Amino acid sequence: MNGRLVTAWAAAQSKRELMTLSYRSPPLRPMDVEIQVTHCGLCSSDLHLIDGHWGDASVYPQVCGHEVIGHVSALGENVAGLSLGQRVGVGWYRSACLGCEFCLRGEEQHCPCLIATCTHGERGGLADYMHCDSRFVFPIPTTLSSEHAAPLLCAGVTVYTALRRATWPGMAVGIVGIGGLGHLAVQFAAKRGCRVTALSSSPHKERDARTLGANRFVDLSNPVECKQVRNALDYILVTSSVTCDWTAIVDMLRPFGTLCFAGMPPPVTFDIASMMYKTLSITTANVGGRQDILDTLDFAATREVRPWVQSWPMEDVNQAIRQLRNGRVRYRAVVHVGDVQSQPQ
User: Fold this and answer.
1) In sequence order, which ranges of the chain are alpha helices (DSSP H)?
2) Which of 39, 124, 156, 195 is most deeply buried (CB count within 10 A of its CB)?
3) Where residue 342 falls among pLDDT bands split at 50, 70, 90?
4) Strand ranges (DSSP E) for 115-220?
5) What is the extent of the structural domain holding 75?
6) Are the beta carbons of 321 and 47 closer than 8 angstroms?
7) Are residues 276 and 170 located together in one domain of the fold?
8) Which pLDDT score is estimated for 2?
9) Does any domain span residue 145?
């Protein structure tokens, strides 16, 4: 089919507010689908791309959006398993080679040929339509509303995959930060049967943390409370991007414990000798592979994990971005196109 005229919201230059942009989409390739977008989540990665913090990853006019929900509006001739009108989602990446060692292991996010959804000139989901390789498009469970499903495609899969790989029922798990990532991590960890300690320097978030499923709340700005959980946790997932007292946090780990970073704080220095004394490990989290995304959606649907969402119409996307910049979103921002319903479709 001939390319469609797409209307998107784009940053014309670094650190600028988004403006409407029209462009003609390329013709569908045999394995592509066209998606009519209904919802798109916003996250800190979008801010980095708008502001040009990641160098060549930003190509202006920059069209962001990688937590995309919509309906299949056109199918390439070789597409299988999807149908016109089906509700689907797209996450951080839109294609990979499917033949390298990482793709064959189901870790497509590490493919050297990976194509991200909205970096290096790819145009993301802050638009009324987008194209994607159909093999990286995921059906949305009927019990998940579209505004709840969108954040699961990046934030959700990042923390769920980290927890699934390293935790099991009964483990003592700490979650640093109760925000866009952390509020999901608390839910996933609790629903996995872990004993969850929420770690935050914002005491006013204790009620939220307990509502989300935390068994205990520790104010990181209170040294007395921090000492009460020394040698108490098996696994700590850092979801915030701010500097913490890392010595105090490492002290909370039991022997053979793991500190995992899903958030991206400034550079960190650790006392390796003290960590060796308890045989501690440091690792990081990334978005998962395709099966991880499907598993995240399924777990959230069946175990009732739901993002806490604030939503805006697409034409108010700049207001949503300002709120996100100022840390005033509780806890995920989602924009929607037109007068759409957020209920399961």
Assistant:
1) 44-51, 101-104, 146-151, 157-166, 182-191, 206-212, 223-227, 246-251, 272-277, 290-303, 317-325
2) 156
3) very low
4) 115-116, 129-133, 138-139, 172-176, 195-200, 216-219
5) 5-139+308-336
6) yes
7) yes
8) 67
9) no
Percent of the chain past pLDDT 70, that is, above it, reads 97
Q: What is the pLDDT of residue 338?
A: 72
Determine the pLDDT at residue 339: 62
The rounded Cα 116 to chain-centroid distance in angstroms is 13
How does strand 93-95 pair with strand 115-116? Answer: antiparallel
Residue 241: strand, helix, or coil: coil
| E strand spans, 58-168 | 68-75, 87-90, 93-95, 115-116, 129-133, 138-139
The pLDDT value given to residue 345: 44
CA-nearest of 119, 158, 118 to 37 is: 118
Residues 264 and 327 in one domain: no
Indicate the SS3 state at residue 19.
strand
| Angle, helix 157-166 to helix 290-303, in steps of 10 degrees | 90
- Is 0.90 topped by the overall pTM? yes
Asked whether residue 52 falls in the same domain as residue 175, the answer is no
Q: Residues 103, 182: one domain?
A: no
Residue type, 203: P
Mean pLDDT, range 9-22, rounded to an integer: 97
Q: Which two tokens stand for residue 172?
A: 């003592």
pLDDT in tens, 54-75: 999 999 999 999 999 999 999 9
Is there a domain that residue 173 lies in?
yes
Amino acid identity at 229: V
Domain count of the chain? 2
Tokens read off for 108: 């497509």
